[in-house]
Specification:
single chain, about 850 residues, alpha/beta, eight-stranded parallel β-barrel, 27 strands, about 40% helix
Length: about 850
């Protein structure tokens, strides 16, 4: 039976309004391990739909049905506000009972609560008590509660209908509230009978006391002039699930989070997700679990606790620096930047000051730090801005890193076995993934995440097959159970048959053979079977990668991210340092073209020495070319270095985040002034197409440049209004969405009419299906990650451009990215692994 513990009762708090009271209750639920922080936003959403005030100073806030996957375990917390909080209509709530419901275990607690509602004096006593055990005793059934004033209703004579309590959790608070809202629309008397008890359908308290579990029969009776209409509306409400998610599956037949592609023929149980890193592996699964950290709430020596916190912060910062350097060597600057960003999260003076303030109040260093970072992470997760909400996981990762050094008791849970395993996790934080040993990890499968999340990027860089967004059912698999992870198909296959295992082994062999063939042919041009050529270039982030790009078969550099020179330092690079770096890269290309993108700082990249103001939505703020205009001194210095390097070989300069012709005009004027100062020959100028306004103005912009380069990652998130790193929205932020493809088509059409070419340098260009569709839409150059260069070239050599063009046209009429991907799989099933 569900019990309320002392840690789940918070006394003597205050709140200025209902919204803050709900947030306080929600944070208490997070602290108790009942919910994920994002559930709090759903609790506020529920309150906007229907009030949760019961009466007698008691409110029961809870979330909307669609947020149930954010409930970790069923339970309640009780927060006392002795001064009262206005819950609407001038009725103050003094006891706020936050409900997290994954099952119907909490119904018994609510039934006991209705007894308190029937005794205003008892409710007032509990609303002002200083003893948490008094509240615990009533809610745990250890002390008798007075009978409610309306526990039952008298049976009424009238017409009746038979209905069934909603599955799976019965007539608890949420569906009961929905029933009350329907019943109150009618003047008729309405009663609900369950067993030998009758409840007033217009009283939430009365309905809760019925204790009707999911699937149990109920009889609804109505009497009055509009009784027939009332019964009709109530029947419809029950058929719709009474605000509950309607499930047609039995528990043993819970559907997968996503439908598996129809062409994946496996005998075992297929759990479908999203392909995040290619490859196929077979082996036992193992659930990833972090250590459990326990800290004392109070400590006797504040001075010692202040020192402990400072030491832990310093040690965590050093650990992050080491991790950054190690991963830089393994995966390059761009991937390692994740841990540089984590260092910045630690350097938050307000967060550190708040923790020290709590220590001054007698709290231990560990308790104070955990309270501060979890509150911040919870607040971030609730924000409407998806970028900021997406940073909650990063802050939690950093917070635990410090807490690990402050914990009084550290209990290590379920370390990885010695033999290789397929790792299962709810989600993996960047530092978790970066420490994985590919020799021990056959593959990754996460319940959440997205194909362009930090975890997916790191998995690809370590060449570990990965599937993300597979849904919570993947965590039901027992450790040691055999599975196949198909990173190409985006599925995990539990309990594979011998045929499945044989096919997986064959797939691994074929992948190896294909990669070797691609490597041997990497210098061949990407000419389709009907004689059309597509240039395949590389994206690079530092001078050393220029050589790697050429060795991989790259026909140039389609995107050189110059930010690497400006990050991880205290002062900006001067002209000579930049010139030396650009000169090195130009020489390494040995006559092949290189596109140098001007500084693209802002959004998710922050540089402390630039002293950029805090922004509510940095992706819509001062970033890219806007920052270059704000800091024209840096812009001119960078342009001087680029133009000087252009004397060494074919350099093209590209401006990021151009949103309007006036911005392009200004950027070109500054560039021309610098060029004349240096007296060097002109270079080709181009712009990134990343925002919808640039697409809509592409016909005007095309008259002023030599080329366009479509940044599909940013274009996708701006077109779909979805942050590609958002924990909830990431699976939907797919660059092959027809809306994004239509933007590409419009851009290419404008470029053709102006006589310029179009490239693409985002993640879609290296995607198997993306390479086909972008080429079919007329994109002339695909710039991809260095390891993907040989495979993209081989893929294009295996198809006819006429087929790619026909498929691209058909893709524009699809309804979503899933339908687009299925179309490409169907048309190009035999073309070098297109999926």
């Amino acid at each position: 039976m569900l019990q309320v513990s002392e840690s789940q009762v918070r006394l003597g708090l205050s709140a200025p309004d209902k919204t803050e009271a709900i947030r306080i209750a929600g944070r208490a639920m997070v602290d108790s391990g009942l919910i994920d922080p994002g559930y709090i936003d759903s609790m506020l959403g529920r309150e906007a739909v229907s009030g949760t005030y019961l009466g007698s100073g008691i409110a029961i806030p809870h979330g909307l049905p669609e947020a149930r996957d954010l409930v970790r375990r069923t339970g309640v917390v009780v927060v006392q506000f002795p001064q009262g909080v206005d819950w609407g209509g001038g009725e103050p709530a003094r006891l706020v009972v936050g409900i997290a419901a994954k099952s119907d275990e909490h119904i018994a607690v609510l039934q006991r609560l209705t007894g308190v509602l029937g005794d205003p004096a008892e409710a007032a006593r509990l609303g002002n008590t200083s003893d948490p055990r008094a509240i615990m005793a009533v809610l745990n059934g250890e002390a008798p509660a007075a009978p409610a004033s309306e526990p039952v209703a008298a049976p009424i004579d009238g017409d009746s209908i038979a209905v069934t309590a909603p599955s799976p959790h019965g007539l608890h608070a949420r569906p009961a509230t929905a029933l009350v809202e329907v019943a109150k629309r009618f003047r008729a008397e309405i009663a609900v009978r369950h067993g030998g008890t009758t409840a007033n359908a217009k009283s939430l308290i009365s309905l809760l006391r019925l204790g009707a579990s999911g699937g149990q029969p109920l009889t609804v009776t109505a009497a009055g002039e509009d009784a027939a209409a009332a019964l009709q509306a109530i029947r419809a409400a029950f058929e719709a699930g009474l605000d509950e998610p309607v499930s047609m599956a039995t528990p043993a037949e819970e559907p997968a989070a996503r439908a598996a592609p129809a062409d994946l023929d496996y005998d075992g149980r297929v759990i479908a997700g999203i392909s995040a890193s290619p490859g196929v592996s077979t082996g036992p699964v193992w659930k990833f679990q972090r250590e459990e950290l326990t800290v004392a709430e109070t400590a006797p020596d504040p001075a010692a606790q202040h020192r402990r916190l400072d030491q832990a912060l310093a040690a965590a910062a050093a650990d992050l620096r080491n991790l950054h350097e190690e991963f830089w060597k393994k995966a390059g600057a761009a991937k390692a930047a994740i841990f540089k960003a984590h260092q910045e999260l630690l350097d938050d003076p307000e967060m550190v000051a708040e923790a020290h303030a709590l220590i001054g109040q007698g709290k231990s260093a560990g308790w104070a730090w955990r309270a501060v970072y979890e509150e911040r992470a919870g607040t971030l997760a609730q924000l409407a801005d998806p970028l900021l909400a997406g940073r909650a996981a990063d802050l939690s990762d950093v917070g635990r890193r410090v807490l690990r050094l402050l914990a009084v008791v550290t209990e290590t849970m379920a370390a990885l076995p010695e033999h290789p395993v397929i790792l299962l996790a709810e989600d993996l934080e960047p530092s978790d993934t970066a420490k994985l040993d590919p020799a021990k990890v056959l593959g990754l499968c996460t319940a959440g995440g997205g194909a362009t999340s930090h975890t997916a990027i790191i998995a690809r860089s370590l060449d570990i097959p990965a599937v993300v967004a597979a849904g919570p059912s993947v965590l039901d698999l027992e450790n040691g159970r055999t599975a196949i992870l198909d990173g190409d198909g985006g599925v995990l296959v539990a309990d594979p048959s011998e045929r499945d295992r044989g096919r997986a082994a064959e797939a691994r062999i074929k992948v190896g053979e294909r990669r070797e063939a691609e490597r041997l042919d990497r210098y061949k041009p990407a000419i389709t079977t009907d004689g059309r050529r597509v240039e395949v270039a590389a994206n690079i982030s530092d001078p050393a990668e220029a050589v790697q790009a050429v060795e991989a078969g790259g026909e140039g550099v389609g995107l050189m991210r110059t930010e690497f020179l400006f990050l991880q330092r205290d002062l900006p690079p001067d002209e000579e340092e930049q010139f030396a770096a650009y000169q090195t890269m130009v020489r390494a290309m040995n006559g092949l073209p290189i596109i140098l993108r001007t500084l693209d700082i802002g959004g998710d990249k922050n540089v402390p020495y630039l002293r950029m103001p805090a922004e509510g939505n940095p992706f819509l703020g001062v970033r890219g070319i806007r920052l270059c205009f704000e800091r024209e001194d840096l812009f001119r210095t960078q342009l001087r270095a680029m133009l000087r390097a252009s004397v060494e070989g074919p350099v093209r300069i590209m401006y990021p985040m151009i949103a309007a012709p006036a911005e392009l005009e200004r950027a070109k004027a500054i560039t021309e002034a610098v060029r004349q100062e240096l007296n060097v020959p002109p270079v080709e100028l181009g712009i990134m197409i990343e925002v919808p306004s640039a697409v809509m103005m592409a016909d005007r912009l095309a008259r002023e440049v030599s080329f366009f380069s479509i940044g599909t990652n940013d274009l996708t998130q701006y077109v779909l209004a979805m942050d590609r790193l958002h924990p909830v929205l990431a699976p939907q932020a797919d660059g092959l969405h027809p809306a994004v493809l239509r933007m590409v088509e419009r851009t290419v059409d404008a470029a053709r009419r102006a006589g310029i070419w179009v490239g693409a340098c985002g993640g879609v260009a290296g995607d198997p299906a993306g390479a086909v569709l972008l080429s079919g839409l007329g994109v002339a150059e695909l710039s991809v990650a260095i390891p993907a260069v040989p495979s993209v070239k081989a893929r294009l050599r295996a198809i006819a451009m006429a087929d790619a063009e026909r498929t691209a046209r058909d893709a524009l009429d699809c309804v979503d990215a899933g339908e687009v991907r299925a179309l490409v799989r169907q048309r190009f099933a035999d073309a070098g692994g297109v999926s």
